[in-house]
Amino acid sequence: MGWGFVVVLLTVAVVCGRANSIGANWGTQASHPLPPDTVVRMLRENGIQKVKLFDAEYDTLRALGKSGIEVMVGIPNEMLSTLASSLKAAEKWVAKNVSTHISTNNVNIRYVAVGNEPFLSSYNGSYLNTTFPALRNIQTALTKADLQNQVKVTCPLNADVYETSTTLPSGGDFRADIRDLMITIVKFLSENGCPFTVNIYPFISLYNDDKFPLDYAFFDGGVSKPVSDGGTLYSNEFDANYDTLVHALEKNGFGNMQIIVGEIGWPTGGDKNANVENAKKFNQGFVDHISGGKGTPKRPEPIDAYLFSLIDEDAKSIQPGYFERHWGIFTYDGLPKYALNLGTTNTGALIQAKEVNYEMKKWCVMKPNVRLDDPQVAASVSLACSRGDCSGLGVGTSCGKLDGKDNVSYAFNSYYQIHDQEDKACKFSGISEVTKTDPSTGTCRFPIMILPYYGGAASHGQVFFLPLLMAAAIAMLSIF
Ligand SMILES: *[C@@H]1O[C@H](CO)[C@@H](O)[C@H](O)[C@H]1NC(C)=O
Ligand SMILES: *[C@@H]1O[C@H](CO)[C@@H](O)[C@H](O)[C@H]1NC(C)=O
Ligand SMILES: *[C@@H]1O[C@H](CO)[C@@H](O)[C@H](O)[C@H]1NC(C)=O
Ligand SMILES: *[C@@H]1O[C@H](CO)[C@@H](O)[C@H](O)[C@H]1NC(C)=O
């Protein structure tokens, strides 16, 4: 009897430990994504037991097979209308992207994320009519495949689907213009035992509003005046935002609904508040804040969350801001950016990716004798930045202190590396040259690219790569 009790306790501890451990978002919009097997090994060595994906790319899922890692597969917004209008298409999607991987590859798929923040106001309502029917069709398809207990549907939404009428969490309700739709979706999720998934970003609150109190974005209790909501004290934005959702759900009769924080994190570059110190402070603060299952004032229960994100993605659209390419807790090549203790490794630090294959140790830089006012410079830089990635050059970020010439070299090198160090990719009107001396300075790393991986993930990256070149070119032209 005594032993039985111990075993039960242990089982409970193990089960809860797993469910509560922090997950990570694994996106692949990179010019040179790490091979999926390398990433899966890195996830395992770091004790990260849950990943959220943005699609159902075959090689990524194959690599996750037999790892035991819990997987949330994603359906991109562009597929919603097809899946909404055809149950057959939804059945095919489930057969190919869920059933096969579970039965033949042994992938631990637990969720299907239908769409990604489809109600963002910047989408102008494009997915308002298709999200719910797609969600319903995927649920029907899962049920037909007899997977409805094992695999749950959800829909990752931006926190702007709810608002508060009073500035306090207790005033929370769904946004007026989509309230009926939200209630339809929540009711459906509830009936099927599925969670509500929300992405919460204090960094964006700060980015959008210079007057946003900086310490309220973090978790270190540095807030001199906590916000009182009828006596309940809030000293950070995350708790207040999460509880606004809890109130919105409660107000509409779904007070017990399971919530997943689909994305949370802080970028290290591309904005004055995006640097290693702040990212470490926020992510470590969040991990510590939710450790031990403490929860929020309104819902003091374990929080289920996925960090955004695992690895930097140099081909993400920079339309929302340059910071978009700098969310990773790891660099593009799997190096930890800072000490982050997830409580899952023996050392208490992140463990870098193993067996990463790099290009040669050479860089493309501006020739030392060329002057900055040379008429070729501006045009060459804008070409380099249109194809390369100059998003790390902004003020306050790790490469923000480069001088004018180093700025130009940074742009040239980025173009050269993204083109796999081809000779012709370092021929900027006679003003550039290849060097074997690392031009990196202090906190600013001039990267060497990793060898291209010719799996499906790479081609996926390229799909996103081309359309954003124009935006990058225009943006960088105005800087130089
Ligand atoms: C499976 O997912 C992939 C990647 O998201 C997608 O391209 C493909 O169309 C899906 N398959 C089906 C049958 O819908
Ligand atoms: C939304 O509308 C704005 C303003 O009309 C436009 O600039 C933008 O391209 C539109 N976005 C989408 C995704 O349609
Ligand atoms: C959604 O449906 C409404 C009502 O039928 C229609 O007015 C609107 O144009 C549709 N929106 C889109 C993006 O298709
Ligand atoms: C280098 O580039 C960054 C970003 O484009 C810019 O803010 C900075 O002023 C530049 N530095 C010099 C010395 O030109």
Architecture blueprint of SSEs:
Blueprint (H helix, E strand, L loop, with lengths): L1 H19 L2 E4 L9 H10 L4 E4 L4 H7 L5 E6 L4 H6 L1 H17 L4 E7 L16 H14 L7 E3 L1 E3 L3 E3 L7 E3 L4 H13 L4 E4 L2 H7 L5 H4 L9 E3 L2 E3 L2 H15 L7 E6 L11 H15 L13 E4 L55 E4 L8 H13 L16 H15 L13 E4 L20 H10 L3 H11 L1
Parallel strand pairs: 1-2, 1-13, 2-3, 3-4, 4-5, 6-9, 9-12, 12-13
Antiparallel strand pairs: 7-8, 10-11, 14-15
Helix pairs in contact: 5-6, 12-13, 12-15
The site of one 2-acetamido-2-deoxy-beta-D-glucopyranose (NAG) has 4 residues, from loops.
Family: Belongs to the glycosyl hydrolase 17 family.
Organism: Raphanus sativus
GO molecular function: glucan endo-1,3-beta-D-glucosidase activity
What does this structure look like?
The protein is α/β, with parallel strands linked by helices and 480 residues long. The protein has 2 domains: 3-325, TIM Barrel, CATH 3.20.20; 363-479, no CATH class. 37% of the residues lie in helices and 13% in strands. It contains 15 helices and 15 strands. It has helices spanning 2-20, 36-45, 58-64, 80-85, 87-103, 131-144, 179-191, 202-208, 214-217, 237-251, 276-290, 375-387, 404-418, 456-465, 469-479; strands at 23-26, 50-53, 70-75, 108-114, 152-154, 156-158, 162-164, 172-174, 196-199, 227-229, 232-234, 259-264, 304-307, 363-366, 432-435. The strands form 4 sheets. Strands 5-4-3-2-1-13-12-9-6 form a 9-stranded parallel sheet. Helix 2 links the parallel strand 1 (23-26) and strand 2. The longest helix is centred in the N-terminal third of the chain and has 19 residues, at 2-20. The chain binds 2-acetamido-2-deoxy-beta-D-glucopyranose (4 copies). One 2-acetamido-2-deoxy-beta-D-glucopyranose binds at residues 393-395, 402-404, 407, 479.
